[in-house]
Amino acid sequence: MQTKIRVGAVSYLNTKPLIYGFEKGMMKNEIELVIDYPSKIASMLLENKIDVGLVPVAIIPKMKEYHIISDYCIGCDGEVASVCLFSEVPLAKIEKILLDYQSRSSVALLKELIKNYWKIEVIIEEASENYQSGISGTTAGLVIGDRALQQRKISPYIYDLGMEWKKYTGIPFVFAAWISNKALANDFIIAFNKANSFGLNNIEEVVSKNPYSIFDLKHYYTNCISFDLNDGKKRGLEFFLKKLKNNL
Question: Which pLDDT does position 2 carry in this prediction?
Fold first, then answer.
């Protein structure tokens, strides 16, 4: 009996279009799907507990071997909506920033913006669960995923990292990509791409299957998250990885 490929995906709403085909039964005989938050999926891929993961691209420099196996990703070309720095005061008055424990790429992106674009002096602090309650006064917080969409209703100052990167570099950004830690068969990759595209070609259906009153998901999937790993995003990814390498 053929061993199934272990695939890890993120539990956030932003991944729903990419995994909808799998949820509908596509590749059910070829893959075993695991769902968790981004940094957990990243650790699983680094530790060979899964074979493929929709993982933060910031882990790429840590991998002994990696292959980007899909034509799709979690990216943006401007405002992303769900990766933001939230604050009660303007950027210049922030004294401390709490980092989202579920993130890797977003944390690395934030640090790049702090150092080379905003050029502000702040205390950076690793956070744990329920840290959003600490976003008050001059303490800001990086929040990603569904919790960021909720935080948008609370914080008066919102610095969208996708938009800030675009203003900084003029190019798109890739937060996460489908990455394997070993070479996979071409027929598997073709089928994987087909499964990814199923949800993207049926966005209305994906939205209806995931009712969410906090944010307009159709707008989110068509105007904020950009799923195609096109040439622009590949340039953005290459530029970001160079930045990471220089900071190692």
Answer: 62
